[in-house]
Design a protein that fits this description.
Layout (H helix, E strand, L loop, with lengths): L1 H18 E8 L1 H5 L3 H11 L2 E5 L6 H7 L9 H8 L5 E8 L1 H9 L12 H5 L8 E3 L3 H11 L13 H4 L3
Antiparallel strand pairs: 1-3, 1-4, 2-3
Length: 169
C-alpha cells in the first residue's frame, strides 16, 4: 500500500514538473507610458509565478515584424508595428505551472470591453488599440517569442525561497 502511494506521488510530482512551463509577457508602450509596469509584475508575482527574464527596451521595427509575422497580411499590421515602435516596451519571461493558460486568463480578452473585471485588461484598459500587454497564446508560441526576444544566457535559472509554499511537490 505504501509503495502504491509513493508511486502515485512520484508520478504526480513528475506531472507537476512537466506542466511547469514558460510564457512571454510584454508590457506595450501604452502600459510603460502609463507607469503600470510594476502593477503588472506584481500580479504575476502574487499569483506565484517566477520571473526569469526582463528587459526595458525600445524594440526595433525588424524585431516587431518578426514578432507579429503571423499578422503581416492584416490591414492593421503597419499601424500595429508603428504603435509598438512608438515607445519602450518591457518584455518578460515567466515560469510556472500552466503559466501560458493562466497568464492569458490574467490578461483578459484582447478587447478590454470583453475582459472581465479582475483581469489586467478588464481593470486597466478601455480600447483594444491600447490594451497595454501581450501574452503568448500557446506553449509553442511562447517558446518562439522567448527565443526571439531573449538569449539563453538571459534566462535566469533560480529557485525562490517561497517555491515550496506555492507548489506541493
Amino acid at each position: 500500500m505504501i509503495g502504491t502511494v509513493l508511486a502515485f506521488f512520484s508520478l504526480f510530482s513528475e506531472a507537476m514538473a512537466a506542466a511547469r512551463e514558460r510564457t512571454f509577457i510584454m508590457v506595450k508602450p501604452d502600459g510603460v507610458q502609463r507607469g503600470i509596469v510594476g502593477k503588472i509584475i506584481k500580479r504575476f508575482e502574487e499569483k506565484g509565478f517566477k520571473l526569469i527574464a526582463l528587459k526595458f527596451m525600445w524594440a526595433s521595427e525588424d524585431l516587431l515584424k518578426q514578432h507579429y509575422a503571423e499578422l503581416a497580411g492584416k490591414p492593421f499590421f503597419p499601424g500595429l508595428i508603428n504603435y509598438m515602435n512608438s515607445g519602450p516596451v518591457v518584455p518578460m519571461v515567466w515560469e510556472g505551472l500552466n503559466v501560458v493558460k493562466t497568464g492569458r486568463q490574467m490578461l483578459g480578452a484582447t478587447n478590454p470591453a470583453d475582459s472581465a473585471p479582475g483581469t489586467i485588461r478588464g481593470d486597466l484598459c478601455i480600447q483594444v488599440g491600447r490594451n497595454i500587454i501581450h501574452g503568448s497564446d500557446a506553449v509553442e508560441t511562447a517558446n518562439r517569442e522567448i527565443a526571439l526576444w531573449f538569449t539563453e544566457k538571459e534566462l535566469i535559472q533560480w529557485k525562490p525561497a517561497i517555491e515550496s509554499w506555492v507548489y506541493e511537490d
